[in-house]
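Run: sequence + adenosine-5'-triphosphate -> complex structure.
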Amino acid sequence: MITAKNITKTFGRVKALNDISVSFTKGECIALLGPNGCGKTTLIKSILGMVVPDKGNIEFDGRPISEQWQYRSNIGYMPQIGRYPENMTIANVIDMMKDIRKDTTVHLDEELIVSFGLQELMDKKMHTLSGGTRQKVSACLAFLFSPDVLILDEPTAGLDPVSSEQLKKKIVLEKEKGKLILITSHVLSELDELITEVFYMQDGRLLFHKKLLELIQDTGEERLVKAIAKIMTA
Ligand SMILES: Nc1ncnc2c1ncn2[C@@H]1O[C@H](COP(=O)(O)OP(=O)(O)OP(=O)(O)O)[C@@H](O)[C@H]1O
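>> structure
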């Protein structure tokens, strides 16, 4: 569904992505892991067309993304830090997104709005929201247009435990519908029940890309955090 071939991206002297090749297929939930600054967000932004690689190419459903822009309507993106027009209310922001999409045929998935109880906060302006509530708005927008692909950058950061569980439940539901989900998180314990593959990066390079079962077999560890620790200290 998404294929990247020999992607390289340099910012000044920093090689954020160094010859990355990857194929992500439908129905998988992939953890993009690696230390701070290893290039995870740059890879995500390259897939979204928000960063243009210096070298290499990326295809979505077999077509180069440089030749199409419509593919983006198939991706729900939850950024690490959501930026919104601060004077707008939550309702205004959601309506604005619906207006921009203009597609009246798409199924609006408002499940998360309901489970987070955001209906009661719709009249609150964005600049008055707590960090966690802002994060909930970002999550709701990522799922709203029922996209085939979900890209979630640190989705549970700042969420309280109850909301975090609600979001994880929703991610599992969408995975079971056969969607492709890419997720970054530094809280590995949260990923055990969600993911099917691990894509581990370091210094802009791909260190390994393995199925979770393969990782468990290779390391003899059931928990992701222990399996990764074993590989990194081997
Ligand atoms: N727009 C930019 N201009 C300059 N340098 C950048 C830019 N975006 C990213 N970088 C650099 O590229 C490298 C990779 O950054 P990136 O945000 O992709 O890392 P990350 O793996 O997502 O990190 P984190 O886990 O902290 O979110 C870092 O050294 C970062 O400082």
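>> summary
Strands lie at 2-11, 14-24, 29-33, 55-60, 63-64, 75-78, 149-153, 180-184, 197-202, 205-211. Residues 11, 14, 16, 34, 36-42 surround adenosine-5'-triphosphate (CB under 6 Å).
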